[in-house]
Amino acid sequence: MSSDSPEALPHRYADLTLAEPLRRAVAEMGYEFMTPIQAQAIPVVLTGKDVMGAAQTGTGKTAAFSLPLLQRLLKHENASTSPARHPVRALVLLPTRELADQVAQQVKLYAKYTHLRSTVVFGGMDMKPQTIELKKGVEVLVATPGRLLDHIEAKNAVLSQVEYVVLDEADRMLDIGFLPDLQRILSYLPKQRTTLLFSATFSPEIKRLASSYLQDPVTIEVARSNATASTVEQHFYSVGDDDKRHALHQILRQRGMKQAFVFVNSKLGCARLARSLEREGLKATALHGDKSQDERLKALESFKKGEVDLLVCTDVAARGLDIKDVPAVFNFDIPFNAEDYVHRIGRTGRAGASGVAVSFVAPKDARLVADIEKLIKTRIEIEPIEYDEDKPDIRRQGRFNEGRRMYERSEDSERRERRSAPRDTLRPMPSKPADPFFNQPYDAPAEVAEPAPWEVVAKPAGRVISANIKPKRKVAALFKTE
Question: Which residues pair with 238 in a beta bridge?
Fold first, then answer.
């Protein structure tokens, strides 16, 4: 499919044979031209064939599978209030809560002028409201694997009439260990169904998954596998661990960036960095897996509204989040998995817009950078970074706490600086005032005098019994013993 000529593919939504309710919703959302993945996938899905699609993140995969599914489900559309008339007919599985919520919102917008119902279920939230929605009946169910299994076991979700299943961001679901859950869920589905698998990268594991559950799929690959978006300007700077925040401040200031994603590798490091940036005057918030779902959704909403400048996050935000007009992504930590680099920088430069991806490379990151270089098949040049002389180093502005240590200029740090400085520039260290007591010569003590009579404690004669031991009480014997 990737070899088809561009002339043979539709480029405008007006060229598609979409039903009037869907065409109206698409026009209302401002869609006019299709992205490459949409132009290739939508006609194939409309025919009912299985699809194995690979595309760079941020290229519109959600519309590529949602619109044709809704088009094919319109034959089941009805205005009945009976839940039995609205069984689950399309199942969309995603790896993260944020991505599931985002896709569900898009599906609702596309189906706005139809009678097709949709809902989303994911972990971290109370199951009762989700159960109520499922009991009402829905045609399109968007879910994360773990929470969907909870509803299946509680008999809240019946999947015996599913006609379409979508595995979106399949590589991420495998990375975080969802393969057993996927296998269990797919065992509940009818054998005769259409399966769509979308992934930003094609790994051997993804190909094995496709061969197991897809029937003669059409492979759609709109860009070289594991490629980064051409709209993203990439920079790698050599920065020590202690200088990363200073470099972040400087690049934000020099480029006049208003908003950015800042990716770190650990949940603890994410929380610490967000607190440090807030103390330094930046509007920052943290997004990681240890936060409750309400906190995660509030952080995303604040970032979307522009109330927060920096969204400090782990790879929980690296996949699929569609926040428009974010100019930059910072890899504060180089990702352990090279494929995560592709997904992280895909948060900027979306839908044809330009973006900047900045990665801070510490000396220990050489192997990780080599893995990224091998994956994207592009030579990476690590640039030095020059700090502004007229701007004070934020690390020297008093005392700060990163959660790891309290910083202050101690005598040890001054000694280290003196050892590394040229000898002709050294000034004598200030001497401390001497204590006259320690300058006196040693005087031997006089002979020890005999103790005074009242200082001598008389020792009792005979056996010494501790004052804490009570003597035995004499008791009259009833019988005389020999």
Answer: 361
Residues 177 and 295 in one domain: no
CATH of residue 238's domain is 3.40.50.300
Convert the pLDDT of each residue in 289-340 to its tens digit: 788 778 888 888 888 888 889 999 988 776 656 677 788 999 999 998 888 8
Identify any residues that bridge with 110 across adjacent strands, giving them in sequence order: none
3-state secondary structure of 45: helix
296 domain residue, yes or no: yes
> CA-to-CA distance for 221 and 213, rounded, in angstroms?
19
431 domain-assigned: no
pLDDT tens for 326-364 read 889 999 999 988 888 888 887 787 656 778 999 999 999
Q: Is 262 strand, coil or helix?
A: strand
pTM score above 0.85: no
Residue finishing a domain among 354, 386, 410: 410
Q: Given pLDDT bands bounded at 50, 70 and 90, which one contains residue 385? A: confident
Parent domain of 205: 6-221
**Please, what is the Cα angle at 254 between 378 and 281, to 5 degrees?**
115
Return the DSSP state at 351: G
Q: Answer yes or no: do 201 and 148 share one domain.
A: yes
Instruction: Please report the DSSP string for 46-95 in residue order.
Output: HTT--EEEE--TTS-HHHHHHHHHHHHHGGG------GGGS---EEEE-S
Short-list 5, 15, 138, CA closest to 70: 138
174 plus 249 within the same structural domain: no
Look at strands 260-263 and 284-287 and give their pairing.
unpaired
281 and 366 fall within a common domain: yes
CA distance 477 to 451: 50
Q: pLDDT for 62-78, tens place per residue?
A: 899 999 999 999 999 99
- Which one, of 207, 226, 227, lies nearest residue 217 by Cα? 207
Question: Do 96 and 156 share a domain, yes or no?
Answer: yes
User: 69 and 117, same structural domain?
Assistant: yes
Confidence grade of residue 406 (pLDDT, cut at 50, 70, 90): very low
In a domain, 50, yes or no: yes
